[in-house]
User: What shape does this take?
Amino acid sequence: MLIQFKDYLTFENIYLWVNLGVLPFWLLLILLPKSNFTQVLVNSIIAPLILGSVYVYVVYQSILLDENIFDILLLYLSLDNLYTVFATESFLLIFWIHFLFLNLFLGNWIVRDAIKFNIPQGLIVFHLILIYFSGPFGIFLYWLIRVFYSKKLKFHD
Assistant: This one.
């Protein structure tokens, strides 16, 4: 049975499952941000544990495929190296999981911060959707709203 499960865990299937797996967390953040259920589920160790485990599994599979894990460091040297690193399916999946995790973390932070500053949920929905698709742009626009509602221009928290 474990061998059949391992055969099912292709990089393509992992990609599909992590994309589907983060959706309930995002839906909770968008639809029920103040719910205790959302706060417990999204602020808990559940999402990091799941995504972290998948991340470690993909790194492990990369090592088993004799891919040099240290080639990831080459992406900082040139844009051509970035293309080369992302041409490897396992490295691309590692970075995609990284992207999903960080955007979920940002979305969670925005919800907690918006509750703290009494920012209306209707304004936050738009920013959460932007963060889901493009983290930096969504956080920038949220910061502009936050400055208005907090009535302070703070560069740290």
In short: The helical segments are 2-8, 11-31, 36-43, 46-64, 79-86, 89-116, 121-133, 135-150. Residues 2-150 form one domain. The radius of gyration is 18 Å.
